[in-house]
Amino acid sequence: MQIESAVIFTYETKEEAKIALESLKPDNMDFIESYIENNSLICKLKVESLRTTLATVDDILFCEMMAEKVMDFTKEEIN
């Protein structure tokens, strides 16, 4: 059985979505397709097990949270 799912992150700007996409690229595996649509980062997964799906979504969420913290820190430094 193949499980398909999507995780969508919406940002204030398209530029922030692009930064997040670039930050997550090193962690993307063959079963993750990530792309930008407007100001959203969309990560689509196609995997064979629910366990892998849950673990992958957990990894994506953690990595995105780190990217978001870096963006927030950078905004504070600029202002």
List the helices and strands and how they pair.
Elements: E1 3-10, H1 14-24, E2 32-37, E3 40-47, H2 50-78
Antiparallel strand pairs: 1-3, 2-3
Helix pairs in contact: 1-2
Short description:
The chain has 79 residues and is of the alpha+beta class.
How would you characterize the overall build of this protein?
This protein is α+β, with helices and mostly antiparallel strands and 79 residues long. The chain has a single domain, classed as Alpha-D-phosphohexomutase, C-terminal domain (TATA-Binding Protein), CATH 3.30.310.50. The protein is built from 2 helices and 3 strands; from the N terminus they run βαββα. It has helices at 14-24, 50-78; strands at 3-10, 32-37, 40-47. Strands 1-3-2 form a 3-stranded antiparallel sheet. α1 packs across α2 (50-78). The longest helix is centred in the last third of the chain and has 29 residues, at 50-78. The chain is elongated, with a radius of gyration of 13 Å. It starts with a strand and ends with a helix.
The low-confidence parts are none
> How much strand?
25-35%
CATH class: Alpha Beta
How many separate helices? 2
- Biggest sheet, strands in spatial order? 1-3-2
CATH superfamily: Alpha-D-phosphohexomutase, C-terminal domain
Largest sheet: 3 strands, antiparallel
User: Total number of β-strand segments?
Assistant: 3
| Rg (CA only) | 13 Å
DSSP helix fraction? 40-55%
Distance between the ends: 50 Å
CATH architecture: 2-Layer Sandwich
Mean pLDDT: 89
Shape: elongated
Structural class: alpha+beta
What would the CATH topology be? TATA-Binding Protein
> How many domains make up the coordinates?
1
Pattern of helices and strands:
EHEEH
